[in-house]
Structure formats: structure tokens, C-alpha cells
Specification:
alpha/beta, Rossmann fold, six-stranded mixed beta sheet
Amino acid sequence: MEGRILEKQPVIEMRGVTKRFVDVIANDKVDLKLFPNEVVALLGENGAGKTTLMNVLFGYYNLDGGEMLINGESVTFNSPKDAINHGIAMIHQHFTLVQTQTVLENVMIGMEGSFFPDYNKAKEKLLAIEKEFGFHLDPDAIVWTLSIGEQQKLEILKALYRGAKILIMDEPTAVLAPTETIELFETLRNLVKKGHSIIFISHHLQEVMDICDRVVVLRTGKRVAEAKVSETTIPELASLMVGRELLERLDRGKSKTGKTILEAKNLKVKNNRGVTAVDDLSFVLKEGEVLGVAGVSGNGQTELSEMLFGELNPEEGEIFISGKRVPGGSPSAVVKEGMARIPEDRIKTGLFMDLSVKENMILESHVNEPISKNGLINMKEIRSFADNCINSFSVKTDGMDIPVKSLSGGNLQKVILARELVGNPKLVVACQPTRGLDVGAMEYVHQAMLDQKSSGSGVLLISDDLDEIFLLSDRIIVMYEGKVMGEVSAEEASRDKIGLWMSGVIS
């Protein structure tokens, strides 16, 4: 996307924007410009102030200092409605769609009009927008029947229907498969050609290099750098984000495998829609190795992890830990046998967000000595345990007594890692362990996985991120429609082969 001539007048200009929350300065005199027909990346670690800055731009928060200009005119937004009226739309990584309604109904939600809207006129307008921008969504399709990539496109269609010329995209590829990401980028390029401008927030730096023109980097609430994509590199951007040099590649080390620690035999289960999600799936994991489970999202990985975690009872098949069969549907049984569980959704299933940091630290050990004895909780031991977890895993928190929901995404993940790994478990099952994390937090999680392997633990890594799979795995299996499509050692694996398996093609 090089070679564009940027016009002198920016469509958005944020001058010295400051936002405070009590004593915390989330944005400290931040400058940001966005020009016509341009994609600007907004980078930074979790907690760097990116989302706060965009929430100011979109009218969720009021300015505490500075000024915003839209097409050269100073503006004040008191709500998202004001931003929308100025042609700005914000598309979040977690979609705001009504799953039981149609594409057309979702597009029309919130639009002003008569009590009895003209559906035919709205449908005609929607189809015209789809034709102009190359979309192919059936206006009468129910949202839950759409793929994740199609739902992402629907969010963009909602914005275009409302006349948006400026799109804020917050981690837009977090839940997309590789092919869906490629399609999204084609859509974004088409939008830019037709006069739109985009602010792109992502933790995937290769994506930034592929789709963006300029990069603005925030750190601890301040703008620390700005550069053209053509004049920087991924390592430079990563270092700017975290304020230090990152390892270009972690040392996976040689695999010194021991006994079988986890065995899945002929597992089968249906998802919540009654469709078979895992179908006759078998594998083994040995001590001292990382087994990567790759696949496009929605091919049974979530259901597999839920069965292994004891949250879902398999309809058929068995699970063995260290040769001992564990009952299905019993989280306490797998924990008792030494499994550390790192779920894919740290907010919904990994933590109780209203509980304190220390309370979340003891969720799986509160009935064990010395934390609990004869039914009595020992607060001194709880504080000692939580303090050890916080220090051992470098959790950035204002104290163990504050609600865990006040922590950044990376530190939320560290709380889970600390809780699960501080006792050196013999088996770790990690599902999407770095989803939504910045590069610094990713490096930390990856090193934690390799440290567990080095200590002799078996690590099952379930991830949609192929880079993560290749970086950490000693062996790789690929899931497609609930089945194992293939298995290969890391040394013999190729992206072409893995990609074919992920598409259901046996090479």
C-alpha cells in the first residue's frame, strides 16, 4: 500500500489528548493524525492507552485535556452518537450482533426512522452497499449461521450503512482464520481505495506490516514513536512497544520425552448446537514435550479443551492421565491428577472478575493444606501464596486485594499462569494462551510453556496461531471437523502441509 500521496488536511487530528481516571493518567498529551485513504496502526502493550484513546475518539469518554479535530474543525463528543454523526465507526473484536436476527435486521438496529421501517428500501440500500464494496452476504440470513469472517464483514457493513468514512478496528483478526484474515485485508484495501480511512489496532506485527501505511506507538499512556511502515521493521516495532529488545526466537530446546502423561482415546462429543464437534479423536502426549493442536477456529478445539478440563463429558471415549482413567465432566478429578488448565477465555471461564487477585490465585487450591485445614481458611497462608505467585510471575498489580478486573489483559493471563503453574504441574493444557496479548506478554507466556517442558511436564498447546504452533511445538496434529487430519514432527512440518490439513485436504 505504498506510494499513496497523503493530503495535507487530516481527517482526524488529536492534539495533546489527555485522559485521567482518578490518579491514573491513561493518555498523556497524545498526538495522532489520520489522513484520507490511509491505514494507521496504533500499537502498544496491554494497558498502554490504545483503547482509552479510541474510546475518547468515539465519544465513550470525555477529554480531560487537548483537542480533537475532524476535517480541520474542532469537535467535542459527548457520546458515540456524536462520533457516528461525524462519520466515525468503532468495530470491536467482540462482535455486537444479535445472533437470532437477520443480517438486514442487525444493520437496521438503532437507526432512526418511522415506527414501521421500510424493509424493502433498507434491503435495497444494503444490497447497493454490498455491490459497491464487494460483499456477498444474504440480507435474510440469520447471523448465527454466518462464519466468524462473515460476521466481521457484517460489522463493517453496519458501519458503512450508517455512512462511516473512518473505521476504528480493534483487534479485528483476533478470532479469524488465516483465510478470513486475507479476505478482511482485501476488504480494507477496497475501502481505502474508495475514500475511507482506518485506525488499525493489532498485536500481530506482521499484519501491521501487511496492511498499514504508518504506525503510532504508545507506551504507558504516551506517544513514543511514529514511523512509516516502509521505514521500520517488526523487531524495531516490538522493541518500541515494550521499551526493551525482545528475543527474535525462543530456544525450544531438544525434546527429551518420558512416559505418556496424557492419552485421549476415541473422544466424541456434540457442541451446544447438537452437531458433532469432536469425532473419534485420539492422541498421546509425553512428558517433556509440547504437542501443538492446530486448526481453523471452530473445528472442535474448544470442545476438546472443555473435555480435557473436565467441563464437558465425552459421549464416547476415555481420557487417561499418567495411565489413570479420569471421569468425564469432573474438573476436580483432572486437577487432582496434576493438570494445569489454561482456558481460551480468561475473562469468562478463567477468572472471577469481581473477586480479588488473591482470591483468584487460590481458586483451585482453596481446599488444600496449608491454605485450608479442617474446613477452616488460613488467611495468612493465602496471602503468602498469593504474594509468591505475584512475585514469581511478575504480575503488575496495585495489590492482591484489588478486584482482578482492574488488571490489563496480559496481567490477567499472568494470574492464571501463576495459579496453574506455581506448583510445577506434570501436565499443562493451554488453549489459545496468547489470544489478545501484546508481543511482550506473548513472549512471557511462551517462555512459561517452554519452562514447563524443560521441567519435564507435558504441554498440550491448542492454538489458532500457526506462528505460535511452529514456535513452541515438538509435534503437531491438525484438527478438521473434529478429527485428526494429520500428525507430523516439528522438524518435518511445513506451512503448506499444515495449511492443507487445516483445509481438510490430505496431502
